[in-house]
Specification:
The chain is an alpha/beta fold and about 280 residues long. It is built from 13 helices and 7 strands. Strand 3, helix 10 (about 190-200) and strand 4 form a beta-alpha-beta unit. Helix 2 (about 30-40) packs antiparallel against helix 3 and helix 6 (about 100-110) runs antiparallel to helix 9 (about 160-170).
Length: about 280
Amino acid sequence: MKTSLDCIPCMINSFLRLLGNGMLPEEKHVDATQRLLGYLSTADLEKSPPALAREMHAIIRQELNNPDPYLEIKKQYNQKMMDMLPRFDKMINEAAHPFDMALRLAMAGNVIDFGPQNQLDIMQTISRVVDAELGIDDSKRLEKQVETAKSLLYIGDNCGEIVLDRLFLQILDHPNVTFVVRGGPAINDALIEDAEFAGIPEYARIITTGDNSPGAVWETASQAFRDAVMSADVVISKGQGNLEALMDVHANIYFILVAKCDGIASKLGAKTGDFIVKRQKF
């Protein structure tokens, strides 16, 4: 997916919001913002938004001289969601259709994201998702295909969210699942150690994208990751960043996300804030 002009102010506003949250000392704000604007002024808009965001967050890391400035808050979200695991597990076990409930909780977890301009509250979203009508709903087709698939690739997204992915993997109960995390720090995206903390290895083998973009950017991801996508019978892709990065890849991908901006919602034929399960057309 190319980066549209509408993505530029969103990136800038997200950057300014991070500065306002104390991510950088105030005396570095102007220099960091000028560096970002300089980069965006010549950026290749043929690239996807996650590809451009990779450079934006490299600026933050360089200014801070810190390879993973979100480390502590990632740990906090992982722990917060692990503490709530019994509550979510109970919701799934008591549901009339456990697959549907686990899917909905995994989808709600996608709001735990420090990148987008518009932030959503996780508990409010979970309360809403239980009975919500999905904006796009290919979930029944996904459930049927998972039952017959020989291999399943699950591309994760953010810390905290992966605890709910774990519950969905538990319900999927598939014997051949590979779970994908980022290859290096990218905002609050999950890394191998986060997946291990969440208990993912009990249900899936873990690999990385081989890249530190906040999305599975096809052009910069490892060949091993690309091969895994193309060889899997079913691919589950979590989050808007992965959608933006993989929208043009011709594979059997099911995108599961909360639409976080008007641009993506419009491309999908949905509304901002909609819960979406959409199969890739290829």
